[in-house]
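On clarity, I found the account of how folds are encoded harder to follow than it need be. For illustration, here is how one protein appears when written out as sequence plus structure tokens.
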Amino acid sequence: MAVNYLISVENLKKKGLIHQNTDTKLIATAIKRVQDRIIQPALGSILYRALLNRVETNTWDAEYRTLMNDYVVPAMVAWVDFKVAKLTHTKITNKTTGNINDDNITSSSKAEIDAFRDELKSDAEFYSERLIGFLKDDCGTIYTEYTEAITRTNHDLKKDETGYQVPWIVKKHTPYKRLKGSNIPDESFD
């Protein structure tokens, strides 16, 4: 089975921050993973498969071309930039996994790479949020696949409600201290 991509490696290099000489295999792998892990949950499995079918058959109307060009592709480009920023710094070989060095470029420090990736992730989350918001605003009028009810199977993913990937932070509950001179007992604050 051939792998379908929502964006080609060449088109991604034109639209994104990735340099032209970056390994095509690495970018293609990143595109596939972003499609599967980020874009499919944003679109919902039915609309995702419908877009893959349109790419394969090259059947586009104005509405679906707008969805792809103005919403899906910018999200794809931003997420692949984010993913490749890490992948180009690390190499997996048969002996080890390590950092890549180049004679023509000085590698950034971990702090610089982290700051750069944070900015890339912020951009990617923005474009995902915009994509999801666009589809929600449509209410299934044009993109009926987005609102179609599905009987979930193992390959159908739950749609993302937001494009932001904020981790939950659970803090340990610290009981309030009774104010000096207060007549409220301590146990009422627990």
Notes: The chain has a mean pLDDT of 82. The radius of gyration is 22 Å. The CA atoms of residues 177 and 183 lie 12 Å apart. DSSP finds six helices and two strands in the chain.
